[in-house]
Every structure is written in structure tokens, then in C-alpha cells.
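Review box. Two proteins, two foldings.
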Amino acid sequence: MPPKPRATLTSLLLIALAASAVVQAKTSDRKQPTQIEADRAEYNTKANAPNVLDGNVSVIQGTMTAKGAHATVWATNGKTSRILMTGSPVVLTETLDDGSPMKATAAQVDYNLETEVAVFTGNVVLTQPKGTMNSEKVTYNMKTGTVNSGGNGQRVKMILQPKSGA
């Protein structure tokens, strides 16, 4: 039986709702096993060739769940290097370290594990109790903590909730 593609998709959820407040995904999730399911899978035994998952793709790691219609997983030297999920839309949910829920939806999520850059594209909506952000594209560089959003001439829209008791 071929090995299952493994990756820490939790990092996909490390998105900022504002430049000064980076959302931290539940750190304990990264230490949990990754469960991957799909209606169909095509595993390629050639080095660096993509593995394809189709139909009701589900990736679960700890409190993090990612669901989409299709996923392509690339490995370099036997180690997962990139994951591209598409769907109608791709839906990511997770419980954050502070216990609050996080939800992200996008037409496509492309995570490069080597560069530690996650790119959400197509009607991106990020929601958590602190607020929401809508954009055509959100790019998060986990090494630098930089979040860039916008694209296709569309404006970024954010709604930030006031602090409790304010």
C-alpha cells in the first residue's frame, strides 16, 4: 500500500484579520496524525510526481479540517512539499489556541511547505469571533509573518468586532 501524503495543513489557517493581529492556529494540532479521505486517489510512484485526490476530499489533523472537491499533493525526496486544494469552495475550520473557532473559505488554497507560503484565491472569506476579511486573494508568509491581500482590482473588506466590555 502506498504511503499516505502527510502535511501540516494547520499552517494554512495562520491568517491575519489585520496586519497587527496574526491568528495562531492551535499549535497542538501540528503534533496530531493527519487523516486523508477522498472518493478516488491516484498515487504516482515516480519521484516528485503529483498524487491526486478527487471527490469529497477531507483532511483532518487535530481540530483542523479541510474539505474540498480536489487535492493535488507533491512530494520532494519523499517529503510533502506542496498541497493544492480546490473546491466549491475549499472550507477550512479549526479551533485556535484561545479556544475560538476559525473558518476560511476560498476557491483554491495553495500551500508550499518548502517556502512556508499559503495562498488563498477566489472569493476568500476568513471568519473568527474577532472579525471577518473578504478578498480575492490572501497570501500568508509564515516565515516572515507577512499577510498580503487584494487582487483583480477588488478592495479588501474587513469587519473587526469591538473588544468585549468596550
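Next protein.
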Amino acid sequence: MTYTFISDDLEPPFDIETDEFIIRKLTVDEVEKDFEALMSSKESLRQIFGIDDDWPADDMTIEENYKDLKGHQDQFDNREGFAYTVVNKGDTECIGCIYIWPWAHGTYDALSYYWVTDKVKENGFEEVLGDYLDRWLKSFWSFKNILYPGRNITLLEWEELIKKIKEEKKG
């Protein structure tokens, strides 16, 4: 069976407004809000994508962040992956991000990371966003089994899985 990330007729939304927050396509237009959010929570973000990851670096610049956002914007436009900013209801600050990528290795049909700033994490927003995201990915996107590294598998299991996939590709 051939893996298909998303169907050709699925149109990923650019904006979603809920009672508590707004989810919007992550573009270079968000660079200032995104950079402020990243730098305000950099220590905890270093535990989102891997064990003791070094992103974002202490000396990360807004120009480097712009390049990252441009890459995410291009992936979205090319339907290769989908990154969203999460902003507060007043649209005055970035309070998190969502990343949705293909995963064609085994039982999962999509890979997703999400993070929230330390400021809103203290109020339980990480769980609110995670619950919303899981429902949204299953209902709108029609994913059945989403891989959330560091959430539904540990980061150690995630790193072991990546290592195994790399070894299989070599062999």
C-alpha cells in the first residue's frame, strides 16, 4: 500500500479561530511574535524536539528565525508539511506552534509536534492545545494514528526509532 500524507482534495486551512485562541499558517509575517515566543521559552523548548536539543540557541537571531519561518511557509505552500502559529485571542502574542509532517514508517500516519510558551503552560494551555490538536488532526485531517514525540512516545523511544530507520535505510 502506498503512503499518502494528505489527499489531493484536502485544503489545509490558513486560519482557525476558537473561543480561546487562533491557529494560523506560520509565515514570515509572524517573525517578530514567533521570535519573542521562542526566546521567552527557549529552555523548555529544548526538550520538545529531542533530548537536550540546542534549539533555539541562546544567540539565535531574528534573521535566523525568519529563514526558519520561510522554510515552514514553503513546506506549507508545497504541501510537504504544515506549520501553524498559535496566537492569543487578541492576536497580540504568539503562545505556541503546531507542526504536522508526513510519517511513512510503520503504524503512524502523521508526525506532529506542538509547543506553548512557558507563560501559558503555567495555566494548563499545553493540555488544552494538545487535546484540540488531536481532535482536529483526526477529524479534519483524517489521521488515525498520530506520532507525538515526547508525548505518546518518550523522546528516548523517538531517538531510538529514528536511529533504527536510518540503519534500515543504510542496510
